[in-house]
Amino acid sequence: MDTHKIISRKIFLRLLVVATVMASLVAIPAWAGNGIGGGITALSDEEITHLNYMREEEKLARDVYLFMYGKWNAVIFTQVADSEQQHMDTMKKMLDKYNLPDPASTEIGDFNNLDLQAKYDELIAAGSDSYVDGLYVGATIEEIDMIDIQEAIDFCDHVDLLTAYQHLLEGSKNHLRAYVGTLEKQGFTYEPQFISQELFDAIMGLL
Questions:
Q1: Topology at the third CATH level for domain 2-17+42-203
Q2: Distance CA 153, CA 1 (A)
């Protein structure tokens, strides 16, 4: 059990860098930051960048979980995928509200952000060896999502968008609890890879 855990963590630490490196995000269009009329204050360049990224990152989570459900036929993956679809829809509503084009492809497993495309390919490969590896992939995604959502929150000045991000953040916490709990039922102990141990313990209700 311990060996499996160590190998899995090494795989994910090798494949995934913390996704808060903003240089890798979707490029800001030339018209970004222009007024959009209707009395709505336009988003800043930073807000647009994060919104674009979060729309595709939520798609990545959904698409990976759909793949894992097809691979392992475990209901946890389809349940969390349904939730990620709701998160995608929330981000789309924000894009529509601010007259921004949707960066997300309609094809499952296809991403306009090349870093997310590479991450998707790596994640489905990492989760294809066993059901437990698939669960580790799920927990890993949720950790990184939380980091990126918090990054978006830190750059956000619009209350409506801030509220949307906070909703996503709580969802990611719920998903992490689900994956960690399922791993425990399989006899594996999950240790946080990207968030702090203190935050992890608080999410798990251990503090």
A1: Ferritin (1.20.1260)
A2: 37
d(CA 36, CA 86): 26
Report pTM.
0.84
| Local structure of residue 195 (DSSP, 8 states) | S
In the structure, what pLDDT confidence band is assigned to residue 92 with cuts at 50, 70 and 90? very high
Instruction: Of 129, 146, 4, 147, give the one whose Cα is nearest residue 68.
Output: 129
Residue 185: pLDDT band (50, 70, 90) is very high
CA 3 and chain centroid, separation: 27
DSSP letters, 68-126, are HHHHH--HHHHHHHHHHHHHHHHHHHHHHHTT------SSTT--SSHHHHHHHHHHHHH
Residue 83: both structure tokens together? 């939730």
The interaxial angle of helices 2-15 and 131-154, nearest 10 deg, is 40
As a dihedral over the C-alpha atoms of residue 139, residue 142, residue 144, residue 147, rounded to 10 degrees, the angle is: -130
Residues 6+ apart with CB under 8 A from 87: 58, 61, 62, 167, 168, 171
Q: Tell me: pLDDT of 82 over 60.
A: yes
